[in-house]
């Protein structure tokens, strides 16, 4: 309960302190025209996405809020320096507490001499630099005070989304044993990892992997066994923690094939009921309830 | 001056002829010269003599020719080509760069925009290992690192692809440098992490004193005794940390007049006595013992700082889209060379006492000798 209050207070403070806006098209009625290719926490080949990826043609990229440009990187003018999949990117520090990062920008479109940006000012153009598969914009928010990446959807106006998330497949996994619950509902007693393929459906079709929803709850016989919220990602002991509530590292939660380990449940002999509830940011919900026969 | 001069001694005053006096004058001068020559003479400064040896044209050559020279092949990445050439001027191979190339004396890794598995190949194109990853490869001091797609972490492998360590960081990596055992990682949040060869944290340091925290550049000295960083904005700072029993602590710091918001280059001399760092159109040479700084102006955008391990010559390549300026410096503070060359693609590499300069499709070898 205390944690929940803290999160709510932090969110409230953020909302009051910052008036962040999406970096593409400031007019609110056109925001919905920009498809989201991947959301915060999306499992990309076994690692989490640290922000939101928009599928976009070459468009102006606007500063999300006014601030100081603290770092910009252009792969061409910095050819001898560290290259990465972010490609050309800009980082803007807002009020010392939050930093917004705009990546996969069009190479050469970043004015390297700029030191300040006003809210809504064009800072670059979206592009396909770095590991961008198509023209897009990768938008990251970093909380300087709490030293963590935060889900931009928590702080910026929500997108219109009327579709429920999808729960595509659910597996019970123990070591090399893996059961697809679409094929069998019978298992043996003991501890099993629950692994699922889940995606939020308000996505672009080309997106690789499954787009993360906001919240996934795992229940056994009506009791919550794990609640995984995609609200922030931080580093602990050299590993990124994707589900801060239970301090779950991505190495435990994210499989390289795009599936997510939701948690571990212990089955006793007899009949059990496994339930998964998935919510997206717009509040759309999907749940499945699966009776399991335990031998 | 009279015809005679008097010399006073305990016996009294006596007089000398003009010939004798002249002989004594010459003898005195010779004596003084000998005293100066053997006692106080200073050697003349050595001059750098650059001797062009050969020019080679780079064109696509997918075949891997054997290296018949005694020295190991030299890697290059120039314009749209990468490959190796022999020190005698023979092009061993040259392939088109895909999205990028990480290349060293011992291996190369070519990568696509969206890698999923990367092959580590020897200069003769034999497969040394493979790494399933979406990260971008990066060679530093012949160590092979992989920078995670979003700069949130790094891992190191052997040339056979075996993972040595993997580490994620609390924010985006903005600067990275290593020697054979120590790595310094600069982060967007303004933190500097110093790692040992197994990736364990030796020290973390968040330089204050600036309105905006960020690490713009970092360097590790060859002997691991020093780590330098340029950090922050308003104002920017130069920090030199020195190794102590409990980790690295601040040895020296200086406020800088620069206002960079981009990667900044730093490098140590091979004897770890000097730090070369970038300022606005200026290369600064910091003498770590005397804490004095020499400054040398260059024109254009800095592209590369190259320090020669053999003779500590520092070559600086700077310029704009169609001209490169090559300057050579010698610590503690002398500018030896400054020349401008027309071209759009450049490459600079030092090996032994030779400098290899690439301009568009040509690579030139120049041998440096101090005389």
Structure description:
The complex is a heterodimer of chains A (295) and B (371). Chain A has 295 residues and is mainly beta. Chain A contains two helices and 24 strands. In chain A, the strands form five sheets. In chain A, strands 1, 4, 6, 7, 8, 9, 11, 12, 19, 20 and 21 form an eleven-stranded antiparallel beta sheet that branches. Residues 203-207 of chain A have low confidence and may be disordered. With 371 residues, chain B is mainly beta. The longest helix of chain B has 23 residues, at 18-40. The model of chain B is unreliable at 1-14 (pLDDT under 50). Classes of the chains: A mainly beta (295), B mainly beta (371). The interface between A and B is large, with 48 and 46 residues.
What is the helix fraction of residues of chain A, given as a range?
under 10%
Shape of chain B: globular
Q: Quick one: overall form of chain A?
A: elongated
Task: Extract low-pLDDT stretches of chain A.
Answer: 203-207
Main sheet record of chain B: 4 strands, antiparallel
Mean pLDDT of chain B: 88
Order of helices and strands of chain A: HEEEEEEEEEEEEEEEEEEEEEHEEE
- Measured between the Cα atoms of the first and last residue of chain A, the distance is 37 Å
Q: How many strands in all of chain B?
A: 33
Which structural class do the helices and strands of chain A define?
A: mainly beta
Treating each run of at least 4 consecutive H or I residues as one helix, how many helices of chain A?
Answer: 2
């Amino acid at each position: 309960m205390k944690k929940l209050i803290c999160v709510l207070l932090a969110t409230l403070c953020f909302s009051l302190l910052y008036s962040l806006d999406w970096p593409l098209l400031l007019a609110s009625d056109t925001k919905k025209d920009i498809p989201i290719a991947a959301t915060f926490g999306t499992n990309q080949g076994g690692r989490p996405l640290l922000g939101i990826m928009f599928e976009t043609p070459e468009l102006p990229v606007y500063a999300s809020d006014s601030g100081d440009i603290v770092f910009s990187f252009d792969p061409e003018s910095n050819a001898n320096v560290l290259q990465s999949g972010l490609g050309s990117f800009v980082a803007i520090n807002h009020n010392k507490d939050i930093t917004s990062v705009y990546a996969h920008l069009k190479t050469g479109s970043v004015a390297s001499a700029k030191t300040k940006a006003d809210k809504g000012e064009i800072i670059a153009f979206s592009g396909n630099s770095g590991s961008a598969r198509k023209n897009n914009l990768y938008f990251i928010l970093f909380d300087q005070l709490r030293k963590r990446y935060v889900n931009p959807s928590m702080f910026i106006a929500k997108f219109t989304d009327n579709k429920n998330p999808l729960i595509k497949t659910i597996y019970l996994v123990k070591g090399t044993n893996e059961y697809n619950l679409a094929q069998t509902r019978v298992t043996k007693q003991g501890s099993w990892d629950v692994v699922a393929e889940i995606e939020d459906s308000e996505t672009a079709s080309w997106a690789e992997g499954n787009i993360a929803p906001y919240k996934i709850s795992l229940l056994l016989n009506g009791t919550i066994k794990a609640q995984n919220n995609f609200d922030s990602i931080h580093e602990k002991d050299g590993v990124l923690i994707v589900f801060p509530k239970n301090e779950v590292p991505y190495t435990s939660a994210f499989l390289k094939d795009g599936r997510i380990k939701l948690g571990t449940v212990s089955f006793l002999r007899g009949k059990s009921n496994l339930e998964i509830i998935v919510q997206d940011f717009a509040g759309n919900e999907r749940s499945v309830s699966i009776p399991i026969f335990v031998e | 001056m009279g015809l005679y001069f008097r010399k006073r001694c305990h016996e009294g005053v006596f007089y000398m002829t003009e010939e004798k006096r002249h002989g004594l004058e010459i003898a005195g001068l010779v004596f003084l010269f000998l005293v100066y020559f053997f006692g106080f003479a200073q050697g003349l400064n050595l001059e750098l003599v650059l001797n062009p040896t050969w020019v080679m044209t780079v064109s696509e050559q997918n075949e891997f020719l054997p290296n018949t020279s005694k020295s190991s092949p030299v890697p290059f990445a120039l314009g749209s080509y990468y490959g190796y050439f022999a020190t005698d001027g023979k092009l061993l191979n040259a392939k088109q760069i895909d999205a990028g190339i990480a290349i060293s004396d011992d291996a190369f890794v070519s990568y696509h925009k969206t890698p999923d598995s990367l092959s580590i190949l020897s200069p003769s194109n034999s497969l040394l290992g493979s790494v399933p990853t979406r990260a971008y490869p990066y060679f530093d001091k012949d160590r092979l690192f992989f920078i995670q797609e979003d700069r949130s972490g790094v891992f190191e492998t052997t040339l056979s692809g075996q993972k040595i360590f993997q580490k994620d960081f609390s924010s985006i990596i903005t600067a990275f440098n290593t020697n054979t055992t120590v790595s310094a990682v600069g982060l967007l949040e303004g933190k500097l992490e110093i790692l040992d060869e197994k990736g364990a944290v030796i020290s973390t340091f968040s330089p204050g004193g600036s309105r905006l925290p960020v690490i713009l550049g970092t360097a590790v000295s060859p002997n691991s005794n020093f780590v330098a960083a340029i950090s922050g904005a308003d104002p920017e700072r130069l920090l030199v940390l020195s190794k102590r029993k409990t980790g690295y602590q601040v040895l020296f710091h200086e406020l800088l007049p620069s206002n960079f918001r981009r990667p900044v280059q730093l490098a140590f001399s091979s004897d770890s006595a000097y730090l070369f760092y970038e300022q606005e159109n200026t290369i600064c040479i910091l003498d770590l013992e005397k804490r004095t700084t020499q400054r040398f102006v260059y024109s254009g955008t800095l592209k590369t700082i190259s320090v020669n391990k053999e003779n500590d010559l520092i070559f600086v390549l700077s310029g704009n889209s169609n001209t490169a300026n090559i300057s050579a410096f010698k610590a503690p503070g002398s500018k030896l060379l400054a020349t401008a060359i027309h071209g759009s693609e450049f490459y600079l590499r030092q090996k032994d006492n030779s400098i290899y300069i690439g301009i568009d499709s040509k690579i030139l070898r120049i041998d440096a000798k101090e005389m």
